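Purpose: get a first structural picture of the assembly so the mutagenesis plan has something to point at.
Setup: two entries, given in the order below. No constraints added.
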Amino acid sequence: MRILIVEDEDKLRGQLLSALQDKKYVVDVAKDGEEALHLGQEYDFDLAIVDLGLPKINGVEVIERWRANSIAFPIIILTARGNWEDKVEGLDAGADDYLVKPFHLEELFSRIKALLRRSTGHAHPVIHFANNTLVLDLSGKKVSVDGRALELTAYEYNTLEYLVLHRGKTITKTALTEHLYDQDFDRDSNVIEVFVGRLRKKIDPNNTLKPICTVRGQGYRFELLPDN
Amino acid sequence: MTHAHFYSVKHSILGRLLLATLVLLPLFCGLLGWSLDKAFTSSTHANEKAKLTLQVYSLIASAELEQDSLWLPEHFTDDRLNQASSDLFAVVFSKDPYTLIWRSKSAIKLKVPASWKATEIQPGSAVFGEVGNSQDELFFLQYHVVWEGDGEVERSFQFVVFERQDRVNQQIKAYRQTLWGWLITIAISITLVQVLILKWGLKPIKAVSDDLSLIQQGKQNKLHGSYPLELEEMTNSINTLLSNEAEQRKRYKKTLSNLAHSLKTPLAIMQGSLKPNNSAQNAELAEQINRIDQIVSYQLKKAISVPLNPFSNTIPLKTNCQKVVAALHKVYRDKPTNVVMDIPEDLTFKGEKGDLMEILGNLIDNAFKYGKGKIHIEASPINKNGLSLVIEDNGNGIATEYREKLLQRGERADTTQIGQGIGLSVVADIVSSYQGSIEINQSDLGGALVTVSL
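Result (structure tokens, whole complex):
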């Protein structure tokens, strides 16, 4: 999952960056409204965290301009004053949730997870596939097959989560790379293929479910329908 | 005059000017009428004196002294002296002793009024005057003539001509009727014209007042009209005052915003620096950060609420309520909630938009947070500019013992939900700065019912 952090205060930006990277999110940062506007329009993020008090262009205007350009990723606003006029203005401009400074990082993580889940149309954090054969718990970041918990690496889990949350859509290897791995990741490597190969073996050892199909020359697609 | 009338005259420039006109105009018309009446009466009397003098001269001219006796003709050219019932008669007295020696035919029925006494005057001079009672008023002219009789003996005669005043009085009466008729007509016309002139003259003041009331209603932010020179300085000053006030308010808000940003961001950094190792030191630090945060949040939110300004805008309640509800539907997307809103379209809140949003945000957020999917928001106007706002939900409600405490700073009944616990107390502070009231009760829906009167 690729997240954009827009915060002018260096230390807070750095903290958020490392905290989210620790959670295996791919993170980009912007230190003012102008940079945020540019990054949001140029790259395909899964979520943005935007401070309202930004230099150059304020947070509300950034959000308004993104939304006017049909940029639909979910947005969490960070507000210092926490007054309702600002919150409502931010939410009205197109944000999806807010956090008042100072906040607990756990609170931010849970809001991020909820928003990512909601943005992909899943009301519940636990998603069941193939009559409960495959279960993905988005909040606990756990996967089980036939009631047995799977041991997945963070990258493997993130790959599966991204494919599940974009079910039915073909995800290119480049998109997967951009959304799942840090910028210094070697994009020419066949690591993605290795991860997908390993994932297939772990979640479908007998090759009966065939949850991830390869679209030749394009990428991968998660095919299973959720149980409800 | 009733108290209300007195109040309106005292407090209205138009009323004051009209009152002054109504006092001054009759006084002026009265004095004018009186002086014109005086002038006309004295001119009539002078005219009468002249006429009677001519009569006396004519009598003297026709009189002859023969053998010490005065002779006057039987017949006069002025027929009124010949007719018994005319309004003019003449008499002649001899002096030493005073004896009536002649009277005109017209004086046969008429008598010299008992109240009349001949005046001692120099020969060749005349006295003009009025005599008689209210039924029979007369003008008279007495003329003293000295003739030299036989043996160069001087004989004195008093020629007196009397004329009834009826005809002159009729003339004066007719004149007075015409005069006062016109004066009253002129006074009424002047009053009516004066009302129109005053209204026209005071129109710019009314325009200023209308403009000010538009500003109070939030329909404009300065005086737009083109005003006369006399008012221009005042209206320019008001506009400067208004724009300074707005600028100051904006600056104040911005300063608070910057202050919040510069205080809260370091707190967020401190919070983020705490390692999740659950050490006692961390817990202590976290508690202190939380305390500072609560104090800063409470004081900043309190500082936003400023005393009521007469030029505060009027903020539409329903649209803002809808905005808050729409925003909260987003935040609580995982908790489907049915919100029923019963707010008149034209109901407005007179005050700062930030204060209204703070009241609505905190109360509706609580209803979303603690309710179980049903919220009812109702508002109605009270008094002239006030409103009553009721927000209720179908949650568990608030226990009676907590209700008072919750309206105090930093109190919260439930610690299982995230929040700073200052929402209701901030609302209570804002409400009290508007001299309003807030009350927590049990709703028929099952949860809390908060009533705010502003």
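Residues 1-7, 410-420 of chain B have pLDDT under 50 and may be disordered.
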